[in-house]
Amino acid sequence: MTIFLGGIRGSPAIFLTFNGCLSLNIICIGLNLSVLVACWYWKNKHIIGTRTKVRDDTIACAEHKGDPSVIDRYFTRWYKTDLKGKPCEDHCILQHSNRICVITLAESHPILQEDKKIQRISYQISAGCSRLQNKVSGKSKRGGQFLTELAPLCRITSTDGEEYTIFSCIRGRLLEVNEDILTRPNLLLEKPSTEGYIAVILPKFEESKSITEGLLTRAEYEEVVLKRVGSNLQPI
Fold this sequence. Notes:
This protein is an alpha+beta fold. The protein is built from 7 helices and 14 strands. This is Protein Abitram.
């Protein structure tokens, strides 16, 4: 049985999990930087620059699996690649054992790969739909907007005029969006897996095991990235 205790802006969300004995799992998806810095160090620095660096960092990640970060200790990484047929527009889904899923940019997304400068981030999906208007209440988190796998979460515009849509990737209720990236967009570039997250989604209980169907494991994702590297290498 899991009880949600936190989630207020400025502090981490806290979940108590009862499984024979009491254990405390602290999930730092709040916006308190001091807590996040302490809890959310990440082992795999986001990949920018050349395709060769993608390969090197991917291999380095595989070699250091014996020393997991806090994220890797409490979350399972899932990936969705080439969203809507757009090359390299990859998303990462961090799934906790209590069903909570955190949506982030994958390391290989063009925003990170090409070191894009962000001009604007908008959670306004259409004239009548804004993710910022999402409201949940009660222990069951009722009232949150229900999302399908391809429901857009936000749109990110870079200074070179490119626009990228970030999708939910899974079905579930929207618990919160990260309003901090609206005023501090560099969080997306500097800490995409932690303070630069996009949104938090809670899948239905009966779908908590099936939501990962169609997603890639970390190993499968690394294979996709390596194949891209190979296909882009020029013969000497």
